[in-house]
Design brief:
The chain is mainly α and about 220 residues long. Helix content is about 70%, strand content about 0%.
Length: about 220
C-alpha cells in the first residue's frame, strides 16, 4: 500500500494516511485487553514464520516429491497448534489428554519425517539462486539441529498463543486471513518478482558488493 518516491526514497503520505485510519478504527472497535494480546500474538506469529523460513532455507524437498517440505511444514503447524490448543483448554477430561497425546505425537512424527526425508540444502536458500552464484559454497551462518530446534520454537510460540481466549485467537486468525487474501489478490500480482522479475542484475547488487568487499574485511581482521 505504500509507494516509494523514486527521487528521494521517501514513502508516499497516502499509504501512511490509510494505515493511520485503519489502525484508529481497529483500536476504537477492539477492547484494549484483546488488543494487547493481539499485538503479542502477532509478534509470536512473526517468530513462527521466521522458524518456518529457516527450515525452508536449510532443507529442501526430495527430487521425487518436490512439494513434500511445504506440505509437511503445513501439517506440522496445524497439528502443533491444535496440540497446544487442547493442552491449554481441553485437559479437563481424559479424552482431552488422549487427543493432546495423539496430536503431539503426530507433530513429533512430522518433524522426524522432515529430518529424514528432506535433505539439507546444497546452498543457502536455493541451489540455483543468484546468491549461490555470488557466494558459491561459502556458509552464511550455522544452525544446529534443523529442523528440530525451529519446530520446537514454533511449538513454543503456539503454546503461548493458545493461552489467549477463543475470541482473541479468532481475532488473530481473522486478521491473518485478511492479510493472506490481500497478498494473493493484490500483493502477489503487483510484486516486483511478477512485474519485473527477480533475475535482474540490480536485485543482486548488494550481494555482489558484499561478496567483493568480504576478502578485504577478512584481511583487516587477520
Amino acid at each position: 500500500m505504500l509507494r516509494i518516491d523514486s527521487h528521494n526514497g521517501s514513502c508516499d503520505g497516502r499509504g501512511k494516511g490509510i494505515k493511520g485510519v485503519l489502525m484508529t478504527i481497529f483500536a476504537t472497535a477492539v477492547p484494549f485487553s484483546y488488543l494487547d494480546d493481539f499485538v503479542s500474538a502477532g509478534i509470536l506469529i512473526a517468530f513462527t514464520v521466521t522458524n518456518c523460513s529457516l527450515v525452508i532455507m536449510r532443507r529442501e524437498s526430495p527430487e521425487f516429491n518436490p512439494h513434500l517440505l511445504p506440505k509437511l511444514l503445513a501439517w506440522f503447524n496445524a497439528f502443533a497448534f491444535l496440540t497446544c490448543l487442547v493442552v491449554s483448554h481441553g485437559l479437563q477430561s481424559p479424552i482431552g489428554w488422549i487427543v493432546a497425546f495423539l496430536l503431539g505425537s503426530l507433530s513429533v512424527f512430522i518433524t522426524t519425517k522432515i529430518s529424514r526425508q528432506c535433505p539439507p540444502m546444497r546452498s543457502f536458500g536455493n541451489a540455483a539462486s543468484k546468491t549461490a552464484k555470488f557466494y558459491g559454497d561459502k556458509k552464511y551462518f550455522s544452525t544446529p539441529l534443523v529442523p528440530y530446534i525451529p519446530c520446537f520454537g514454533m511449538f513454543a510460540n503456539y503454546f503461548l498463543i493458545s493461552q489467549l481466549s477463543f475470541f482473541g485467537i479468532g481475532l488473530l486468525f481473522t486478521y491473518s486471513l485478511v492479510l493472506v487474501l490481500f497478498y494473493f489478490f493484490y500483493g502477489s500480482r503487483n510484486s516486483v518478482g511478477r512485474t519485473e522479475g527477480w533475475e535482474q542484475e540490480r536485485y543482486a547488487m548488494v550481494e555482489e558488493h558484499d561478496n567483493r568487499s568480504q576478502p578485504s574485511i577478512e584481511a583487516e581482521m587477520t
